[in-house]
Amino acid sequence: MDAAIRLEDVRWSIGKTTILEPVNLAFAAEKMNVILGPNGAGKSTLMRIAAGRLKPTGGRVLHGDRDVFGLDARALARQRAFLSQHVEIDFAITVEEVVLMGRYPHFARAPGREDRRIVDAALEMVGMAARRRQIYPTLSGGEQQRVQLARVLAQVWSDETPPPARTIFLDEPIASLDVHHQLQILEIVRGLLARGCTIIVTLHDLNLAMRYGDRLIFLRDGRLHDVVEDPGAVSTDLVRRIFDVRATALDDDGRPMLRFYL
């Protein structure tokens, strides 16, 4: 397996409280790596460390063969982007201006023609080009999430052939969205693999993770419990151990899915 990012004995604690036990983990390049686990499992902490946004209290994070915390911040921002769970913007800024924020690592004083072109392309990709002049806070939750995804795309956009290595981190990108918008976001994200991107995403919905993911990474109580290389092979025993629920395996037109019950 080609690894985009490796965690070596990574751990994190606050005082005497351990949030993340030592983790050794590789994220597969140009694949959709899905991190799963119950609330408080350490998913967001693991993701922030892997992205270089939170320095671990032990161990190291390698992007390629280099420690992420030794990389130049601007150079790092051009090759990896991060979408947080909650992005609050409550002032009068247009959709286009929000997406243009993703281009900040690419220009010094003012955006150029190429930056504007990439913003246009990113908005087109997420289906929000027609709303480019709309004030961002007036959008629905699903529309705002698509705009934020466009911002992330604009940050690591590349038209090179072959494309350079880029990683997109998405922390609960479909939380609080209706079913239509959940599927819409995941379809867009899944399509980024064909553009040479590596995806690292946290999800709560195990069935959606099995449908869209390539590798499933299970955490519980700050510990790495299992990595499933075949999303269709998630066992009901693993579900019980991670989520404290029972599950029945079903078949949905050839695609495995689970039904949960206490």
UniProtKB/TrEMBL annotation:
Keywords, sorted A to Z: ATP-binding, Nucleotide-binding, Translocase, Transport
Pfam families the UniProt entry points to: ABC_tran
Coiled-coil residue spans: none
One example GO MF annotation: ATP binding
Start and end residues of each ABC transporter domain: 5-246
SUPFAM superfamilies listed in its UniProt record: P-loop containing nucleoside triphosphate hydrolases
Physiological role: Part of the ABC transporter complex HmuTUV involved in hemin import. Responsible for energy coupling to the transport system.
Name under which the protein is recorded: ATP-binding cassette domain-containing protein
